[in-house]
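Re: How this chain folds, sequence and tokenised backbone to follow
Notation: Tokens come from a learned vocabulary of local backbone shapes, not from coordinates.
Start of record: The labelled sequence and token lines come straight after this line.
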Amino acid sequence: MAVETMELNPEALPDQDIWVYLTVRSTEGEALDVAGKSAGEGAAVIQWPWTQNSSSQQWQPQRVGPSYEYFKLVVRHSGKFLTVVDASTDDGAAVVQESWNGGDNQLWKYTPLTTGGLMVTAKHSGKALQVVNGSDGNGAAIIQNAPDTGNPAQSWHSWYLRQE
């Protein structure tokens, strides 16, 4: 059985059960991950080398609202949601996993970038998902920051695995 990685077009997101990996900078980039594969409330979200079948790196985008413009992103291993801590609107606010609370700090929008990839922004703040300080190191924290379409630390790719 061959496994092929395919980039997901957010405009054509199917309504079926699909799990994606979000990588920063490129197809070889680090993946959005939950630190230590923790299932705990408030566990940090970090970047970590992409690992096939790692459930702490698998995120399910679930469309919400009347326009379906925004997504909840639930991580497979814990069932918790990508969340900006305390609904902060500050640059540098931490992004963690938390149980669903229905807040706009748990809703995200994918915006295609002209340079390729996607900017992922929080509904409550309009701030972009970013690797702290543009780090390329394993374990670097994920934060929200003012959107900058030229910042590679805010350029994400959404991939899903297709088995043949």
Notes: Residues 2 and 164 are 5 Å apart (CA to CA). The first strand starts at residue 3 and ends at 7. The two ends are 6 Å apart (CA to CA).
